[in-house]
Amino acid sequence: MCNDGGCEHVSRVCPVGFRMAETVNGVTCTDIDECEASSCEGTCINTEGGFVCDCGPGMKLSTDRTSCYDINECRRPGTSHLCKHFCHNTHGSFFCSCRAGFLLDPDSQAPRQKPEYVGRTFLKK
Ligand SMILES: [Ca+2]
């Protein structure tokens, strides 16, 4: 297999992230699937010569490039309008709530005045 020192020579030719493979047509460099043994906290995506970790929605990749941390949507600059009244951060997401007397619109996440009832009559505002 490596009777003439060819392996040593070719391994220097294969870039990082590739492994040397012997085929019938000679020696080639093939991409290593780092995701087989990745330390990604989220989803591992194998790329040519490397890999990337994807943390998914609501999460951000840490500087170590493998672990994920929660995005605090309530404290992100410029996103204070996310919730009109109260913002509650959760792991991977967030939710809004309203002051007393208001209901959260499920579509717009905006608070709307709770309808007031007197007996069975709805009072329009
Ligand atoms: Ca969050």
UniProtKB/TrEMBL annotation:
<keyword id="KW-1015">Disulfide bond</keyword>
<keyword id="KW-0325">Glycoprotein</keyword>
<dbReference type="InterPro" id="IPR049883">
    <property type="entry name" value="NOTCH1_EGF-like"/>
</dbReference>
<dbReference type="InterPro" id="IPR000152">
    <property type="entry name" value="EGF-type_Asp/Asn_hydroxyl_site"/>
</dbReference>
<keyword id="KW-0677">Repeat</keyword>
<dbReference type="InterPro" id="IPR009030">
    <property type="entry name" value="Growth_fac_rcpt_cys_sf"/>
</dbReference>
<dbReference type="InterPro" id="IPR000742">
    <property type="entry name" value="EGF"/>
</dbReference>
<keyword id="KW-0964">Secreted</keyword>
<dbReference type="InterPro" id="IPR001881">
    <property type="entry name" value="EGF-like_Ca-bd_dom"/>
</dbReference>
<dbReference type="GO" id="GO:0005576">
    <property type="term" value="C:extracellular region"/>
</dbReference>
<dbReference type="Pfam" id="PF07645">
    <property type="entry name" value="EGF_CA"/>
</dbReference>
<keyword id="KW-0732">Signal</keyword>
<keyword id="KW-0245">EGF-like domain</keyword>
<protein>
    <submittedName>
        <fullName>von Willebrand factor C and EGF domain-containing protein-like</fullName>
    </submittedName>
</protein>
<dbReference type="InterPro" id="IPR018097">
    <property type="entry name" value="EGF_Ca-bd_CS"/>
</dbReference>
<dbReference type="GO" id="GO:0005509">
    <property type="term" value="F:calcium ion binding"/>
</dbReference>
<feature type="domain" description="EGF-like">
    <location>
        <begin position="31"/>
        <end position="65"/>
    </location>
</feature>
<dbReference type="InterPro" id="IPR052080">
    <property type="entry name" value="vWF_C/EGF_Fibrillin"/>
</dbReference>
